[in-house]
Automatic annotation (TrEMBL):
Residues 1-23 form the signal peptide. Transmembrane segments: none annotated. This is Tetratricopeptide (TPR) repeat protein. Keywords: Repeat, Signal, TPR repeat.
Amino acid sequence: MKPRFLPLAVLALCVCLSKQVDAQQTAIDFFENGITKSKTGDYTGALQAFSMAITMNPENAASYYNRGLAKANLKDHRGAVLDYDRAIELNAKDAMAYLSRGLSKSKQEDYRAALSDYSRAIELNPDDPQSYYNRGVSRSHVEQYRGALADFTKSIELEPSNIQAFYARGVIKQKLHDYPGSLSDFGKVIETTPKRSSAYAGRGMSKVALNDFTGALTDLAKAIELNPEDSDSYYYRAYAKSKLDDYNGALPDYDQTIRLKATNYAAYYGRGFCRSKLGDQKGAVQDFNQAIEIDNANVETKVVYSGRMSHTILDNLRNVVQERNKINEVGSERAEAYFSRGVSKSKQGEAKAAMIDLSKAIELSPTYAEAYFTRGLIKSSQGDQKSAIMDCNSAIKLNPRYAEAFYVRGLLKHSLGDENGGCLDLSKAGEFGYTPAYKVISEYCN
């Protein structure tokens, strides 16, 4: 159980906008439109509006900050960080920009970098409980438990109604083996939010550590009642029952733990122990074997598709994209004709012949971005991902706002294990108007 961040929605939109001359009135209109769309939850629309405001007035920190918030709400945290960078470059005294950038870095598990941002936010606004809370969360992730404890305590001091901070402090006290202290924090959470299963689970685990197995059973039973899919609560309840010599009662809980989390080797050990006590030595040996073997050797096989996107997923996502085959006036070198013939051959399943035509189109017209991109799509479908990336590189070099090329290159990089580079490309694709990129970012970049 780890502390959870408060939702991005609690971060107030920065609506400060510098005085601008009449000639920049359109930029103000786009900015205000972006604010309106953000407030209604239309973050894709807000992003486009802020992008237009930035195009017309690239020196306004608030536009970058709010576009960063829109990207963050679309789970594009890499893209958000780039916008917060620019906002801070233009206005280094904006505590909210540091706080937001820290949150997006935390979402990417870059906790040490986030710590620096949260600390700067605290310097600029020392009375903001959210900054202390977020810094405490990041400190807990890098095992700076004493510092995290101090931050959560300060957050509670500034905002006594922050129940999330009480819960987080209870977890940190467990990390520091202050189980009696954690009981009061979990108790405060339960008193205020009696339907929160994790608070009962946390208090139950602390009671197990304090050998209060009977008390633990009551809390863990409540946790399971509220959240029947919580494997940890089943495990600790089984363990408490085992400590009370209730081996028959413990077995179903170990079974349920394993059903919900088959890699929990401790649950196999516990079930094996109970089976042994109940005379089922054959079953016990099988469980002990599992307890010994599970996650006891990390043998990784190097594969081409080393990212979280498999070959099949890549194909499915890439094939949604269509080549840009708009009719153009045919030049004397006939590059357009070769391009269109290549597209037609590709649609007939003649990939090799299609690539010959597309290569000829590129030879005749070396600035033909669409030909590079389309050839890259075909190469990717044939499994030649590295060469496909090179074609996307060429298309983007020729057309730096080629959204589909950024999208496909992002997919290819991600599938080959470059998650950061891939997600940055997907962010660019979304920024340039290819909105399907945000669905991929949501699923594969967080």
